[in-house]
Amino acid sequence: MKSERMSKKARVITFHPDGEYYFQKGITAYQKGDLLRASKYVDRAIAFEPEETEYLCQQAAILSELEEYEASIDILRKVVMELDEHLTECYFFMANNYAYLGRFEEALKEVRTYISLEPKGGFIQEARELYKLLTIESGGLHEEDEGYVAEHEKGRQALERGQYKKAVTLFKKVIVDRPSFWAAYNNLAVAYYSQGNTPQAYKTIERVLEQDPGNVHALCNLTTFYYQLNETEKLEALLPKIDSLYPFFPEHRSKLGSTYLFIGEYEKAFHWLMSAEKAGIYGDQAFYFWLALASFRVGLKELAIRTWNQANFFKDQPFHPYQYGKVREMFLADDAKDNPMVRSLVHQQLAEADSSTHKVYSLFYLRYLGDQAAYDQIKAISQTKESPLVSAIAARLLKSNDDSVDIMLILEEHFGNSRPMMQYCDLYGWWAIVFDLIQTDDDIEAKAWAAALAYLWKKENEMAETQSRIAKQFDTTVYQLRKHVNRLRDGLDDLS
Question: Which parts of the chain span the membrane according to its record (predicted)?
Fold first, then answer.
């Protein structure tokens, strides 16, 4: 028995944690977004090895995210001034900290030092962008620089409004004036892609990455292009590089987070969007929608609701929320019934939308949800007096069978896989015109009306179509199609 106890005792291994042990625990906590715990672990690592520059630089980065900018600056200055003068990126990070503190002259001094010491350094593009921002903040932007900055902003606004041809022209003009202004290239790539000019989009991104392989916006744009085009092998090859990014700028963290959101990596999306928010990003309404959706997807429903309120229904954006791709995906997701943002946006549209088209779509969407809460909301709209047409449509939607409603359901079956078609929202406005025309009709040819709507709507949107093909698709005759097309045209003429 004694020898057995001695044998067990002999197998006990004494563990003495060292600096590397605590540093790795700190990195793990940092990657999980637990900054306070990360700082404590890295601080323990530094206690073991006070002059280990890797530990010190990591602690400086963590302190910056915790908004302890002065403490971060002190560490960075010690590293580059006392321990290793070759770690010149410390000047760049000090410049960022000073910028967050609003001390722009000191920030300019540090960023100039970095640019002069490292003209081809790993952060040179970010440093140049920071320098431009700082010169604007300090009132030092030269008159000749104001032109290309203004042109780029015009291009960005055109891109947001879907004016892709105009955006391409403006971004190309900026590039002629400033060939190394990578933001213009990145936005130009998005404009090309939005036009359907994928080869030029890829070519533009490749040019950026040839000169700046770590450009966050270029890598993120390339990721979303691969994802949308189902370039699975290319996407899988690129993702490890995306996963290895640790952006310093809040704007870059936001871009990385929104990219992860786009491809459905919600945990990573939440991490980087929250990181951007904590770092003091000036978030627009789209940013807060991204953060709200990511919060909901990772199970933080209360945070999602609070953040969604900051999105304010996209009221300051140049687009309608129903035009936004991520909103469309959210409305058709499996968890849409449980998503408070979906209900909130539908309620807001029914109460405040200027266009009856968006109200009609919202009613059909509630019908699609099909639960008691949706039924109650449709019923409430049917009893209002504000818009007689919208109220009449709501009343018809409450019926189990209605020929006029069937017209729209047939269109949804053909174009939306029997689901509401947010991407073709204007078609609901066209249907509302038909609904108004036929309210007193005794015999309604639902298939013929659906065919007539589809034909005229496609013609209006410059889609190639023939009457014979549409008639066959909707199981009606060319005669019936023409008859209903003529009546719909007469109705449209009466409105004009």
Answer: none
Domain boundaries, the chain: 19-119, 142-245
What mean pLDDT do residues 343-353 have?
Answer: 94
Q: Copy the structure tokens of residue 37.
A: 């715990």
CB atoms within 10 A of CB 65: 20
Q: Which residues touch 170 (CB under 8 Å, ≥6 apart)?
A: 151, 152, 154, 155, 158
Structure tokens at 318: 């140049």
Q: What is the pLDDT of residues 122-174, one digit of tens each?
A: 788 788 888 877 765 554 444 445 466 678 878 887 888 788 999 999 999 99
* Token pair in block for residue 215: 């450009």
The mean pLDDT of the chain is 87
Q: Taking the alpha carbons of 265, 268, 272, 278 in that order, is the dihedral positive or negative? A: positive
- Does the fold of domain 142-245 match that of domain 19-119? yes
Q: Torsion angle of alpha carbons 152, 158, 164, 165, nearest 10°?
A: -70
Phi, psi of 157 (to 5 degrees): -65, -40
pLDDT tens across 175-219, in order?
Answer: 998 888 888 999 999 999 999 999 999 999 999 999 888 888 999
- Model pTM? 0.68
305's tokens: 């609701």
Topology adopted by domain 142-245: 1.25.40
Residue 230 pLDDT: 95
Predicted confidence (pLDDT) per residue in 73-87, tens digit: 999 999 998 999 889
Name every residue whose Cβ is closer than 8 Å to that of residue 88 and which is 6 or more positions away in sequence.
80, 113, 114, 117, 118, 121
Is 19-119 in CATH node 2.60.40.1220? no
